[in-house]
Amino acid sequence: MSLGKSITNSYISDIFAEMAVLLELAHENPFRVRAYQKAALAIEGLSENIASMPVEKILKIPGIGKGIASHLEEIAGKGAFSEFEKLKKRFPKGLLDIVNVQGIGAKRARALYDKLGIDSMEKLMKKAMAGEIRNLDGFGEKIEQNIILGVKEASERKTDRILYWNARLIAEEILREIRSSGFGNPVYAGSLRRGKETIGDIDILCNGRPDGVLAEKLSKLSCVERTLSTGPTKVSVILKKGVQVDIRIIPEESFGAALCYFTGSKEHNVLLREIALKKGFTLNEYGLFRISDKKQKKPIASGTEEEIYRALGLQFIPPELREARGELELAAKKTIPELVSASDVKGDIHNHTNLTDGKSSFEEMLEKAVSMGWEWIFIGDHTLSLGVAHGLDYARYAETKKTLEKASAKFPRIKTGRSIEMDILKTGDLDFSHEELEKTDLVIGAVHSSLRMKEEEMTRRILKAMTSPCLDVMAHLSGRMIGKREPSNINYDMIFEEALRHDIAFEINGQPDRQDLTDVYARKAKETGLKIILSTDSHSAQQLEYMNMAVVVARRAGLTGKDVLNSLSYEEFREWISERRKTAG
Asked: Of 91, 124, 295, 516, which is least packed with CB atoms within 10 Å of its CB?
């Protein structure tokens, strides 16, 4: 028996994620907290609507047991489950906002609530500015100052825009529902199709006749909270997630022209229309027409985007490149390369297990990696200095490396290595000694503390870390968290030049709120001659899917499969590590 189709995966995932936070606030058993976190991640990443799946199939999903399944039935009937509703009443709503302030989390939020009665962002700022937080156990002046900065950033960066990854999940759910309702060929367009890091409204094009019938049906999709407007060719709705979606009904014969137009960017479209005019054409969302065809009765091209670019004498331009950054000049010369795709990726290097701050075991990570078709994976964790992540010293690294080797024996289809995310200390030193570093499979350097140093100091810190011949990859270089934390001030030119001398690779981090290197700096890294590697920075097996986020950023940077180290075989990648360490010293 299925649960029905009126509830979306993202809605259910959000409930379980919030339940995990509430349990943390309530000081509940950490195992219960992790159970809800794992369920939220598992459901978020499903390609099929869990609400329409048979219960027996639901119980086969890793992370979903009978308890979670019973909650699913309750959510399907009531929109939530009773334990969740009871727990929500125990805490002020504002406390959840405080949890999300950079550097606080559930444990500190509860302490602030219990000891100072802080239950809103306004009270948090007031108490911090008054110097009352620093005196609490486990806080101090530095944390108090970071809280002030965190609240300011949250206020300044507050926006209705959502992260690309979240928008994509929402859009894919809508597309599935449209298809299941019998409507053909829905696709998303706009900034989402171009892979922008944040999205405002979601634009969807749906094949159909503008007779009003389809528009009426689309306005009644189960994911819709309310309808803003309905016309024969366009429906604007607000989803239950609070996101606005504009759905346009496009006749098949002009679908390509409409897709090109509504994908944008605006700047790209302006340049494209200028090219059309120079060639004696006019271009709009209905097609490419000869200027002499005043009534626009017979388009030269309109059915597909490829037809339109070809008619203009241009190579097809992938949506991710349509930002008026020189792509039209390349298209005129037919020199746009084949961009990197998920099929080029053979493995991942940056991820975390339940040995530190991750949620999944070695076995769960390996099982997911195999399911993604990868040939290899380096499984990593944090080092000791990152205390909040229960980081590893060298002895634990070596011990867990043996544990990974045993776990790998169960998965003969995939080759493994043990990476380590090495904390770069404020001094620029690394967490392990040189002798210990030499015994590691792969070292990923990263800054996690004192992120607001002056540019000169932060740059010097990173440059010093790069003098270690065993630092193989630099992770999330800017340290930014989109919408939460501004990037650190660093001199990219100096860092890239030094990295080139040591053959250090740079990561494009696929965490949706990192996307670091950005597409702009990834492009600059390639132009400098640096090697680039895509990574997930996953904290659960399900988050290995974030490789697709890294691929999108890489495509926006114009990277090809050969530009990323992930395209190497296991043996080739191992050889690169070995050779660069020999020459880097």
From this structure: 295
